[in-house]
Design goal:
This protein is mainly beta. Helix content is 8%, strand content 64%. The chain contains 1 helix and 12 strands; from the N terminus they run αββββββββββββ. Strands 1, 2, 3, 4, 5, 6, 7, 8, 9, 10, 11 and 12 form a 12-stranded antiparallel beta sheet that branches. The longest helix has 18 residues. It is elongated.
């Protein structure tokens, strides 16, 4: 019992000491994403044109060693894709089809960071998983000579849905924070799950990747 109490006391002291060094912050920036589609039967992969969106969030850093820290963050991330195709009709008229889709997602990032301390600030780099859930989405379709068609995307896993809402990603990031708390960072996130819903998932795979650049501010000792 004494050993258990001693271990509990040491653990509690460690948590208290770590909590006294916890930093809280916020950040904002842009993300540039695209869709990666693969036809499983033909074994062909197509990458869409990139599209820009917002990336806003909150982050906490908890030291777990001399140079390491755990930095969970919750972000609002816009992901998406766009495509443009042109062809000649029977009347020799050029028809252009422009399509774009955009998702608004809540994303939980769970990276472990390695920090290099300096006199005026520190560089950091890290990696970890992300959990993402699409809360809304819209698509736009414009064909030459026709009115633009806008509609909401449906999320689920039935044949009538457009995409599955839940995704798991792999995330890497790098950045610099000055001692006063200003932070600039960049990251790359690769979606790992097939977001194609229903029976189409057997033949088709769709996922989203994105890059982001953000600035922020950290508060804490």
């Amino acid at each position: 019992m004494r050993k258990i109490l001693l271990i509990a006391a040491v653990f509690s002291f460690s948590l208290f000491r770590a909590s006294s060094q916890v930093k809280f912050g916020f950040n904002a920036g842009i993300s540039v994403s695209n869709a990666v589609s693969r036809d499983k039967e033909e074994n062909e992969t197509e990458i869409s044109d990139p599209i820009a969106g917002l990336n806003i969030g909150f982050v906490t850093t908890v030291p777990i060693g001399k140079n390491f820290s755990f930095a969970p963050g919750l972000n609002f991330v816009q992901k998406g894709a766009k495509q443009s195709e042109s062809y000649e009709s029977l009347g020799a008229e050029t028809i252009t089809i422009n399509w774009q889709g955009r998702l608004s997602c809540l994303e939980l990032q769970l990276p472990i960071l390695y920090n290099t301390n300096g006199e005026k600030g520190k560089f950091f780099l890290g990696a970890g998983p992300t959990l993402s859930y699409a809360i809304s989405g819209k698509s736009k379709l414009k064909i030459t000579g026709e009115e633009q068609e806008d509609r909401k995307l449906d999320f689920g896993n039935s044949n009538e849905d457009d995409l599955r809402p839940f995704d798991i990603g792999a995330n890497v990031l790098i950045g610099y924070m000055i001692n006063k708390g200003f932070v600039v960072s960049a990251n790359y996130n690769m979606g790992l799950l097939n977001l194609t819903p229903g029976d189409d998932a057997k033949d088709m795979s769709n996922r989203f990747d994105y890059y982001s650049l953000k600035i922020g501010w950290m508060i804490g000792k």
